[in-house]
Amino acid sequence: MELIWQGIAKAFEIVFGLDADVWTITWLSIKISGAATFISLVLGIPPGIALALLRFPGRSVAVALVNTGMGLPPVVVGLFVSIFLWRSGPLGFLELIYTPTAMIVAQVIIAFPIVAGLTMASFQTLDPKLSLQLLGIGASKPQLLWLLCKEARLPLLAAVMAGFGGVISEVGASMMVGGNIKDQTRVLTTATVLETGKGNFDVAIALGLILLALTFGINFCLTHIQQREQLRWPRPL
Q1: What pLDDT score does 231 carry?
Q2: What does the DSSP assignment read for 64-104?
Q3: What is the CATH number that goes with domain 2-231?
Q4: 29 pLDDT exceeds 90?
Q5: Are 87 and 97 in contact (CB under 8 A)?
Q6: Which residue of 53, 98, 155, 234 has the lowest C-beta tally within 10 Å?
Q7: Where in the chain are the domains?
Q8: What is the value of pTM for the model shown?
């Protein structure tokens, strides 16, 4: 318990002491995971909607792949991204290994199936008659898609939270493709592993607490938006 209290005290010392290294690490974590989450939303929501609304040959295989990807181990993602981006690999000429871009690529691969799977589930929970009703009153296909997205906006926020939570907290892929280079690819998770390995448990606990506070703060804001939207829905008598 004494070690935990020391970690908490160290966290306050680091945060309120405006430690430059920690703020650099924290800001880099936000930029990399934020960018990865945004890209995964852009890439993952359309396939999720398509899997929920359309029927086509091979759909069951695609759904199984998405569901499998939702539990994909980050270290496996890191392994294959490292192989492709390695200097002697197929994409080695891009020179992306051990860069923030490589970390974003790995995190997108991790978050993509999470976003696609939760998007698919959110659209599958909609009333099947809703689409027919909207088409019956003259809605075009783009209008239909927009109205269905508005109807599924609350569970879609859950997809955002799950995607961000999956990438901000992962360490294996970030360590493998980023290299944990100071001021370049060192993020909160990899810095925590480094400090733990060096025996600096107070610093490691402080970094872990900062990561928890950051994750909680972002998820709290998204949850507040989600719950506020839910309260606006008319309640059954």
Answers
A1: 54
A2: HHHHHHTT--HHHHHHHHHHHHSTTSTTGGG--TTSHHHHH
A3: 1.10.3720.10
A4: yes
A5: yes
A6: 234
A7: 2-231
A8: 0.85
